[in-house]
Specification:
2 helices, mainly alpha, Gag polyprotein, Retrotrans_gag_dom, 0% strand, rod-shaped
Amino acid sequence: MEAAYEEFSWENFKRKFLAKYFPETARERYGEEFLKLTQG
């Protein structure tokens, strides 16, 4: 009996990690906030 598994690639890991710990809505919000940063 063989165990079913997914290919473990960097892209697969990154997608799953971000989905679990840093949802897309948060990434969008913080991305916009980051783009508005000014020095000073």
